């Protein structure tokens, strides 16, 4: 019995060590697959090849980006479109989510189901009708053609509805007893409590629209209305003969705003995604 008792902790220790090593290996592979391409992009942009093929540390690729494309205008266009779309999606998601969660009207469940069903429709299916509508409104080849169609968000509506449904309804009843209108109840009680959900909608909207390429390619024609992802294509040169370091330098520049938003928004994003998991 004593021999068995002595060997049990050793075996358990071996099993725990093997499990720990397996987790470290899996995490190391995930880290390599995630950060590997980013590090390669950064190193390649900082070490362009000269005429002899030799590589050296230099900012020449970044200087080349500013000389070939109007980076300031592209950044402004992307910032304007992304900022207005993110704020617009937060506003529409909050209003629609509150309506579906707290207001009772005929056909609300059917309408909410239709909104959720739109999430299953690829953008490529709806891009032609949307383009025809935008052109009919006289907004073709403008930044408004990128902003207005992106203001509604089915996922944001679903997310905010779930948040509002998780807030006790007794708060609304108490505010109604005090004489508050439905708008005042939404603005003063429900909206502040749903701030984590709004943060999730805003951060996801920013990352998605900032990196968007397909819609700007269809909706805009002139260079003055190009967003940053679309403008970076010209760095490839004719038939892809441009410098790879220059292209990757442009990619690094385009990642900076998204990285800043992530750094400042990771806490509310984490709180928003985990809200409701712990009572």
UniProtKB/TrEMBL annotation:
Main location: membrane
Domain spans labelled ABC transmembrane type-1: 75-265
GO cellular component, one term: plasma membrane
GO biological process: transmembrane transport
Pfam name, any one: BPD_transp_1
Cellular localisation: Cell membrane
Signal peptide: none
Segments crossing the lipid bilayer: 20-43, 74-98, 110-131, 143-160, 189-210, 244-264
Record keywords, A-Z: Cell membrane, Membrane, Transmembrane, Transmembrane helix, Transport
InterPro entries tied to this protein: MetI-like, MetI-like_sf
Bilayer topology: Multi-pass membrane protein
Family: Belongs to the binding-protein-dependent transport system permease family.
Listed name of the protein: L-arabinose transport system permease protein AraQ
């Amino acid at each position: 019995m004593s021999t068995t008792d002595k060997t049990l902790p050793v075996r358990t220790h071996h099993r725990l060590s093997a499990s720990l090593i397996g987790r470290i290996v899996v995490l190391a592979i995930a880290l390599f697959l995630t950060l590997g391409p980013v590090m390669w992009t950064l190193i390649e942009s900082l070490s362009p090849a000269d005429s002899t093929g030799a590589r050296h540390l230099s900012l020449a690729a970044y200087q080349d980006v500013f000389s070939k494309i109007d980076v300031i205008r592209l950044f402004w266009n992307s910032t304007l479109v992304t900022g207005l779309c993110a704020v617009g999606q937060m506003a529409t998601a909050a209003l629609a989510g509150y309506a579906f969660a707290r207001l009772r009207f005929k056909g609300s469940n059917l309408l909410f189901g239709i909104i959720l069903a739109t999430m299953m429709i690829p953008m490529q299916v709806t891009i032609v009708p949307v383009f025809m509508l935008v052109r009919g409104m006289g907004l073709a080849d403008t930044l408004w053609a990128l902003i207005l169609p992106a203001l509604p968000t089915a996922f944001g509506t679903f997310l905010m509805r779930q948040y509002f449904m998780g807030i006790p309804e007794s708060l609304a009843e108490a505010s109604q007893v005090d004489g508050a209108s439905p708008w005042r109840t939404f603005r003063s009680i429900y909206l502040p409590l749903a701030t984590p959900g709004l943060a999730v909608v805003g951060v996801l909207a920013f990352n998605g629209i900032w990196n968007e390429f397909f819609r700007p390619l269809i909706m805009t024609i002139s260079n003055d209305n190009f967003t940053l992802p679309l403008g970076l294509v010209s760095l490839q040169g004719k038939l892809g003969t441009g410098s790879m370091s220059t292209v990757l330098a442009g990619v690094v520049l385009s990642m900076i705003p998204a990285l800043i938003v992530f750094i400042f928004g990771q806490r509310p994003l984490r709180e928003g995604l985990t809200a409701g998991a712990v009572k």
